[in-house]
Amino acid sequence: GQNIDQPTEMTATEGAIVQINCTYQTSGFNGLFWYQQHAGEAPTFLSYNVLDGLEEKGRFSSFLSRSKGYSYLLLKELQMKDSASYLCAVLTDSWGKFQFGAGTQVVVTP
Amino acid sequence: NAGVTQTPKFRVLKTGQSMTLLCAQDMNHEYMYWYRQDPGMGLRLIHYSVGEGTTAKGEVPDGYNVSRLKKQNFLLGLESAAPSQTSVYFCASVGRQGFYEQYFGPGTRLTVT
Question: Which of B40, B50, B99 minimises the CB distance to A95?
Answer without folding.
Answer: B50
